[in-house]
Amino acid sequence: MRRSVSVSPSRKGLLRSGVLLVLALSLSGCAVRDFFFGGNKTNEGQVGFVAGFLGGVAADEPQAALVARQVLSAGGSAADAAVALAFTLSVTLPSRAGLGGGGACLAYDPDRDAVGKGMPEAVVFMPQAQATPPQGADRPAAVPMLARGLFALHARYGRLPFESLMAPSEQLARFGAPVSRAFAADLAVVAGPLLADPNARAIFGPDGRVLSEGATLVQQDLSATLSQIRISGVGDLYQGALARRLVDASAIAGGPLTLQELRAGLPKLLPPLTLRDGNDTVAFLPPPADGGLAAAAAFRALQGNRQDLAGAQARAVAVVSRWRQSGGDPMAVLEAPAPAGSLPPLGASTSFVTLDKDGRSVACALTMDNLFGTGRVAPGTGIVLAASPSSAPPPLLSAAIAWNNNLHAFRAAVAGSGQNAAAEGVAVGMMNALAGASPMPAPVPDPGRINAIGCSRYLPGENRSCAWVADPRGLGLAVGSN
To answer: What's the confidence (pLDDT) of residue 9?
Structure first.
């Protein structure tokens, strides 16, 4: 039997979040209402369009997972679900994902006539440091990359209209989203520094204390920004009126951006790093998302000795340390001996995986380069500014997708977080997923956390063999349908 495994704060809390999510969405205009609920006839783009097997989603924040599941039900692809999920995270988990930040995704379509020719592809849109650090910036901000990265992912692999995938996040920001336990935990960690910024305090602690679990988080300025992007297009955030507003607002927030840097910030389409494992091939995110390189190094070490977790972690750190110091061909760095290395404490990230009914899959890791980035909000935009990589070492953004090239079919997807242990988590998670029927038979080493989807008999093929799991020690959700 196909299994659906979910981990959430509590049944009562998840039900409340789901009900409030539906209520918020129901307050939108006809187009959004039709997108989620449909009329008398269920058309593509309306929930219920897909009957039977939908695929699945696993993410660190429950409301975002529910939105992605609705997209799959409406006939969206795995990339459509990923885009809607990521935009929703910018509202419901802005501590780890946001318009001011970025990330990296792997996308896979088994169709050899599709854009990827039956091979996974990486879309890398990490927060970028400015070429010339601005004078007088007390908290340098990264060039925001999320919107452009998601647009590139959708342009390659999407099916539903891009603007429709933004609607859920816009409505949740406007009418309010319940604070999940995952977000409440992040708020508690940085309460003091975060509330020192008046613009952040107005959003996340209006009464002088950070919002608690279950409270309603309303972000009117962010909703207006999302609406502007939906109406005018992503380009407006990088070279239009919205870009000029962000430049002015970022200067007030102490991390000034320039129009030139916004215009120049472009995502990259890259071939992944690949390793063979029996009849399957595993693709890892490539540098500059070097958590994929670290995960590949740990995976290669585990192929030699599945029990040597400490050795796998040491190899991952050694390889990524060498690459960060010297660069070069990632596969050559992966194969060459590397002296023992070390990494400083790395920032927070979040991850998710999606799978649609046809075996298309996306695995992503997103970041603000620090918990809440710079800790400041660009006034009037609602955008939390990510920390510049020049002032905060980038996290190990780690994700992997396994497929069978002979069958043209999906096998497993794993994406991870957990600071310095994120890459090892993805390596162990993928090794475990490929070893049996369950995508997560056991938790990965602390403090790593993963989200995983696996189809032990491949997809397209036997959808009953597919299952999706959020890390049992986390506060996320895995959801889908047969």
So the answer is: 37
Residue 397's nearest CA partner among 424, 352, 367 is 367
Residues 6+ apart with CB under 8 A from 187: 95, 179, 194, 204, 210, 211
- Residue 363 identity: A
Percent helix, strand and coil across the chain, each to the nearest 5: 40, 20, 40
Q: In degrees, to the nearest 5, what angle opens at C-alpha 378 toward C-alphas 372 and 383?
A: 55
- Contact call for residues 324 and 316 (beta carbons, < 8 A): no
H helices of 213-308, in order, are 220-232, 236-239, 241-252, 259-264, 291-304
pLDDT in tens, 76-121: 999 999 999 999 999 999 999 999 999 999 999 999 998 999 999 9
CA-wise closest residue to 285 among 294, 324, 470: 294
- Bond from prior residue into 120 cis (ω within 30 degrees of 0): no
Question: The pTM is what?
Answer: 0.92
CA distance 323 to 325: 5
Residue 149 and residue 266 in contact, taking contact as beta carbons nearer than 8 Å: no
Nearest of 337, 330, 343, 311 to residue 418 by alpha carbon: 343
Kindly indicate the confidence band of residue 41, based on its pLDDT and cuts at 50, 70 and 90. confident
Tokens linked to 364: 């992503």
Instruction: Give pLDDT, residue 297.
Output: 98
Measure the CA–CA gap between 145 and 389, rounded to whole angstroms: 13
| pLDDT over 60 at 55, yes or no | yes
Question: How far apart are alpha carbons 99 and 101 in whole angstroms?
Answer: 5
Tell me the sheet residues that pair with 275: 282
The two tokens of residue 337 are 């001996």
Distance CA 107, CA 116 (A): 8
3 token code pair: 């299994």
- Judge contact between 153 and 105, C-beta under 8 A: yes
Between the two ends of the chain, the Cα-to-Cα distance in Å is 10
Alpha-carbon Rg for the chain, nearest whole angstrom, is 21
Question: What does the buried/exposed string (b/e) look like for 271-297 if buried means 16 or more CB atoms within 10 Å of the residue's CB?
Answer: ebbbbebeebbbbbbbbbbbbbbbbbb
At 156-205, the pLDDT tens digits run 999 999 999 999 999 999 999 999 999 999 999 999 999 999 999 999 99
Judging by beta carbons within 10 Å of its beta carbon (0-12, 13-18, 19+), is residue 116 exposed, middle or buried? middle
